Amino acid sequence: MRISVLGCGYLGAVHAACMAKLGHEVVGIDVDARKISELSLAKAPFYEPGLDELLAEVQSTGRLSFTTDLSAAQGSRVHFICVGTPQKKGENGADLTYVESAVTGLLPHLSPGDLVVGKSTVPVGTASHLADRVTAVAPDADLAWNPEFLREGHAVSDTLQPDRFVYGVANSSSQHLTVELLDEVYAGPLSEGTPRLVTDLATAELVKTAANSFLATKISFINAMAELCEATGADVTQLADAIGMDDRIGRKFLNAGIGFGGGCLPKDIRAFMARAGELGADQALTFLREVDSINMRRRSRVVELTRALCDGSLLGKNITVLGASFKPDSDDVRDSPALSVAAQLQLQGAIVTVSDPKALRNASLRFPELQYEPSTELAVKGADALLLLTEWQEYRDLDPCELVDAVATPRILDGRNVLDPAKWRAAGWTYRGLGRP
Ligand code: UDX
């Protein structure tokens, strides 16, 4: 099948490559010429494990191409909308400019029988409004909402081995054709044994925001428990292990630390609250305000703990921050808790050096005032305190005995609770975790 993918960011580039891997003929379209020229050379414009290899594999078959020219969508049977929906500047709601302009640009190229499929995360109600726009111009075309649940760092495997498919379809006589067409798109090993739910448009939109809100709530719940553990001398990692053994709770997403960041969870819960307000249902989501503030409180807590670790003053202290991306295996620094902490420490008089295996270019664009050092060995030299804020494997594997002579004072704050306190203490370090004694 010929498919177009509008928007070639974290979601679209991966989706385009995976659709070509399934055997479809895919054109990826984006307004960003730099992104398109890199993708055309089988080079992902961001770091995502396995994506460069997949791009090279499918591009060599001739089934995947990239362009800035929207008219290339003409002739495709299915058009995926994969553009970003960032937070509006100075407001909590989602900025739908890119979604609206992608649909506006696509409309003149639609043919009868085409299907427009939204994958971006949007406020509930957006899909039905877009469906009206599509059918007003192309009465024989249709629109479905098919949310994407991929995680950065696992984007390729999450797309090729999804947990479930959600097809949000409009209530119309052609509903079954839409479902059949989506089944045809995903036919093959990707969909074998994968549950599929067919819903209305609003439910499909809500599934995505509800899922991300639940995940954010789980993280803030355990971080709230970390606050209590800190007040009582209990250990939040043991607490999480113990409650996580209950199947009804589950251990995943119960890692206490400096909290969640990234391009999805923070802005999605805020956009969800804003939308609920517009719908007169804001009371239903007031708990998300608390989820957000527990999360933001973690960052200030790390700053305070660092000050305490540095004998009560940050002024002139050399602090090394290990990790800049919002999570490991990604170079994405959007709303990164690590960089937010680094910037706060610097504002309060510390001399901060940030290291990261992949994200330093993006980090320096966002926070040019910070100092960056790609080599861990050089970054830790002479430090008064180390802060592990993004749990890249190479930081988990650091050897406290090797490091102890490189720093000025062996003090470490483990913002992700991934190090073994006993091992670090035995090597002469003052170790501080979050929510651990
Ligand atoms: C998220 C959703 O998981 C995904 O399904 C959706 O499609 C997009 O949003 P992503 O933003 O890639 O994916 O990252 P995720 O793995 O969910 O992590 C989000 C943040 O939560 C990271 O900053 C991570 O460090 C943090 N986190 C995660 C915790 O602090 N504790 C945990 O236990 C888990």
From TrEMBL:
Reactions catalysed, semicolon-separated, are: UDP-alpha-D-glucose + 2 NAD(+) + H2O = UDP-alpha-D-glucuronate + 2 NADH + 3 H(+)
Instruction: Write the record's keywords in alphabetical order, separated by commas.
Output: NAD, Oxidoreductase
**Pathway listed for it?**
Nucleotide-sugar biosynthesis; UDP-alpha-D-glucuronate biosynthesis; UDP-alpha-D-glucuronate from UDP-alpha-D-glucose: step 1/1
Cross-referenced InterPro entries: 6-PGluconate_DH-like_C_sf, NAD(P)-bd_dom_sf, UDP-Glc/GDP-Man, UDP-Glc/GDP-Man_DH_C, UDP-Glc/GDP-Man_DH_C_sf, UDP-Glc/GDP-Man_DH_dimer, UDP-Glc/GDP-Man_DH_N, UDPglc_DH_bac
Entry-linked Gene3D superfamilies: Cytochrome c1, transmembrane anchor, C-terminal (1.20.5.100), NAD(P)-binding Rossmann-like Domain (3.40.50.720)
Q: Which residues form the UDP-glucose/GDP-mannose dehydrogenase C-terminal domain?
A: 320-421
Please name the GO terms that the record assigns under molecular function: oxidoreductase activity
Enzyme class, broadest EC rank: oxidoreductase
Any idea of its EC number? 1.1.1.22
In which family does this protein belong, per the annotation?
A: Belongs to the UDP-glucose/GDP-mannose dehydrogenase family.
- Note the NCBIfam families from the entry: NDP-sugDHase
Protein name (Swiss-Prot/TrEMBL): UDP-glucose 6-dehydrogenase
